[in-house]
Amino acid sequence: MVWTPDFLTYQLSDDHPLNPVRLDLTMRLATELGVLEGITTHAPEIADDTELTRVHTPSYLTAVKSAPVVPFGVGHGLGTEDNPIFLEMHEASASIAGGSLRAAQLIAEGRADRAVNIAGGLHHAMRDRAAGFCVYNDCAIAIAWLLEHGYERVAYIDVDVHHGDGVQAAFYDDPRVMTVSVHQHPLTLWPGTGWPGEYGSGDGAGYSVNVPLPPGTGDAGWLRAFNAVVPSVLAAFRPQVLVTQCGADTHAEDPLANLELSVDGHRAIYGRLRELAETTAGGKWLVLGGGGYALFRVVPRSWTHLLAIVLDRDIKPERPVPADWLAHAATLTRQPLPSGMTDGQDPSFEPWGGTPDRVDTAIIDIRRAVLPLHGLDPDDPRD
């Protein structure tokens, strides 16, 4: 596990939705539940310009570094409502990028099969601009580092409610990287991209996979769509390492989106990602955080389940939330806090190919767009 309290300095503003309190509460909850007992944490170094320019332009780095000093006219998507300028913006952003790089290095060096940077997952940042609360794209930076250090096939799965547009853009024509994003439909949510027809270009055709889901999709529909598409394309691609962005903003209580998943559904998703890492990527799994704006009731529980699953210390859903954690969280919010690690939902689903479901249009569209490019039959549920 990669962690430093410095990750908590990535705070875009006092009232910004991306509040680092969610990270602090996650670490406190995981600690109190014993998930991190005996686990060595690795502090990252701040990513240097050489690491960052694998993905970003030098002019963009200059803008990020100078913005807090010259806050007007810097451009590059900085100084907006989504991406306000804040003190030590470069250092805080490069620290998170360094965390994801450290996680990649631990796997590449054979020191771990799985590594997690819960502060990572800033998947919207583009080559020369900030976007969607993201200054540096740590996901793409870690993937680019893996490619430069001997990896020839890297799969990236993004389960955030928003399309993983920045990572897709970074590798859109690169057949060494398969990007998979399961997200709310682009007609109904920013950034308005992530259509099934965005399947890559040139040599990268077939290696961008997008599964857009209608608003209101819950656990069963999400898992039905995921399992109808993702295992097939991963098995065909045969990645050497699986990188996952595990945003928790698909939850029904998230204030910025409109899917209807539960913490129980999140737990099922993380378990499925672990299975796919084992069966398709030789057990190599690099895990990143992402979005999630239900800061007190959802993200800490969801990501504590994630950490537990990464560490093979799965928490039973009926486990109560520790009293000390509740007491601390109650000093930070007036919201009612959950008493258990479950929302009381059953995330079971009916596989695609049976009774029709409202998500089947998305399933059929992406299967027909991408599966034939990998020699698979889009109309055969066995593929």
TrEMBL record:
Keywords: Acetoin catabolism. The keyword Oxidoreductase does not apply. The keyword RNA-binding does not apply. Residues 16-308 form the Histone deacetylase domain. Pathway: Ketone degradation; acetoin degradation. CDD domains: HDAC_AcuC_like. One of its GO terms (biological process) is epigenetic regulation of gene expression. InterPro entries: AcuC, HDACs, His_deacetylse_dom, His_deacetylse_dom_sf, Ureohydrolase_dom_sf. GO terms for molecular function: histone deacetylase activity. It comes from the Bacteria. PANTHER family: HISTONE DEACETYLASE HDAC1, HISTONE DEACETYLASE HDAC1-RELATED. Belongs to the histone deacetylase family. This is Acetoin utilization protein AcuC.
